[in-house]
Amino acid sequence: MPHSKAQKQKVRVSMSEDTCSDHEEAEREHFIACCLPKGCPLKTSVDLPTSVRVICNNDACRQSGYMHSECFDDFEEEILAYLRGTGRARSWSEKQRRQNIWTKKGYDLAYKCCACQCGKGHLRKDLEFVPPKPEEVGELQLQHQTKGKRKKKKNNEKPSVNVVSTSIRPRRSSQSSNCSQLSESPPERSPISPQPKTPTKKTRANSHENTYHFFGEAFNHGANHSNTLSSHANVLSTFLKRADFSSFQGVLPRHKVNPYHIKMEDEMNDEARHFVLSNLSSRMTCTASCVLCCRELPVFDRYPLIDGTFFLTPRQLNSSCVDVSQNGKAQYLSAVCLHCLEGIPNRVKCKLCNTEWDGSSHQLGTMYCYDIFAASPCCQQRVACHSCGKPVVDLSEGKKFFWEYSQAMKCPHCGVSGFHCIKAISYYEPPDPIR
Question: Residue 268, Cα to own-chain centre: how many angstroms?
Fold first, then answer.
């Protein structure tokens, strides 16, 4: 017989294998990856009817442009948290921040924390996107599959001339009309290539808003402010010039090497930088030591100032802290290195309750105007009175602002005033040294 039983079985097996491979290929073609910048925790395909569409201002971006609604909510909450502590958005109500987040007014302030996974663009919500109905999804996937087959067929043919741009232009034309107004907001360059800004009249007029540092109290312009700035050039010559961002790229994941996580521009607010550099220069030093692991850190003349972050505290945490005066208050300029903030190779731990301290949410290369360790108390001992040992803060309610934990408080139990929430740095167990 021309077709034996064994041959028929082989044919059936090969057909079933082809069917499975076609099914897997179809699933791959239908899979829409979530483009959440920090990485999607769900690891599942985006369901278009419940998705949120975002647009990257980088024409060459290869991300899907869709997020799970849950992922987008997290993304939006991070942006709102950023707005609560920056520029004029600090004076907005929560309702105003939510209303302005995707308008030009809000996005001009928030675009830095909207860096896309492509590394060269910034994301913005597509306000004109209407999610397709469930019955329309099948038709869209069929169109997508047909496009994929055509693309595969074209890949096997010889390349044609002058057709490269046609695959990119439709995406640009489908963007929201509001995006044309944002051409000056997100930088058209790589987010890790800082360039000097030229202030406009509007920027100068509103420069008083920027005198408030991103992370705490204001730096007052003294009467001799112009004289101070003129001597700034002499101060800068003491410090190193940063050649690249390799020290950050070697430690941080790729999605965190951007102006949101690393301070890269002065944003018309040079007071904090001048404050750090002039105080260190007056002490004849161009380095700082990490208060946790004592790693020696070089200080640079431009942002990011340090491979870690500076902060001010009213108590001297160790001998490396530099005594300074900020707005007439005695403070100590202290530093934490990048590795201790990121918890590399392991997290910093509180010795009082064994809770891990996570410093990865702090912006690198800048200065906070409050004690960043006191700002996030993990146990009752952290807010205990220095005199009677009873808590001066109810942790179930906490404080409204991080800087409030660095202020002098009066104990409600014994009446003694002091910086009760600022504890000795020895109560923290630093990470193991990197070998």
Answer: 20
Please provide the DSSP assignment of 374-395 as one string.
Answer: TTS--SGGGGB-TTT--BSS-T
Percent of the chain past pLDDT 90, that is, above it, reads 30
How far is it, in rounded angstroms, from Cα 97 to Cα 383? Answer: 31
Q: Which residue has the tokens 């502590």?
A: 85
Cβ neighbours around 180 below 10 Å, total: 8
Report the pLDDT value the prediction gives residue 406, as an integer from 0 to 100: 93
Using alpha carbons only, what angle is made at residue 315 by residues 285 and 379, rounded to the nearest 5 degrees? 125
Residue 351 half-sphere exposure, CB side, CA atoms within 13 Å? 9
- Give residue 182's pLDDT: 32
pTM passes above 0.70? no
Distance CA(42)–CA(46), nearest Å, equals: 9
Query: How far is C-alpha 22 from the chain's CA centre?
Result: 41
* Collapsed DSSP state (helix, strand, coil) of residue 239: coil
Whole-angstrom distance, CA of residue 426 vs CA of residue 293: 11
* Candidate from 204-208, 221-225, 353-357 with smallest mean pLDDT: 204-208
Tokens 């705490």, residue located: 216
Residue 257: CB atoms within 10 Å: 21
Question: CA of 327: how far to CAs of 32, 314, 316, in Å?
Answer: 53, 13, 18
CB within 8 Å of 313: residues ≥ 6 apart:
321, 331, 332, 334, 370, 371, 374, 406, 422
- Each as own residue / partner, the long-range contacts of residues 50-56 (CB below 8 Å, 24 or more positions apart, any chain) are 50/131, 51/131, 52/125, 52/129, 53/125, 53/126, 53/129, 54/123, 54/124, 54/125, 54/126, 55/123, 55/124, 55/125, 55/126, 55/175, 55/176, 55/179, 56/116, 56/118, 56/121, 56/122, 56/123
Q: Which DSSP category does 434 fall into? A: P
241, amino acid identity: K
The token pair that represents 182 in the structure block: 């944002």
Alpha-helix runs per DSSP H in 232-358: 232-236, 246-249, 271-282, 338-342
57 vs 426: CA distance, rounded Å: 47
> Per-residue pLDDT for 365 more than 90?
yes
What is the distance between the alpha carbons of residues 327 and 347, in angstroms, rounded to a whole number?
34
Q: Supply the mean pLDDT for the chain.
A: 75
Phi first, then psi: what are they for 145, rounded to 5°? Answer: -65, -40
Each residue's pLDDT tens digit, 173-207: 333 333 333 333 444 333 333 333 333 333 333 43
Strand order in the sheet with 428-429: 356-357, 348-350, 428-429
**How, if at all, do strands 329-337 and 322-326 pair?**
antiparallel
Residue 4 confidence (pLDDT) above 90: no
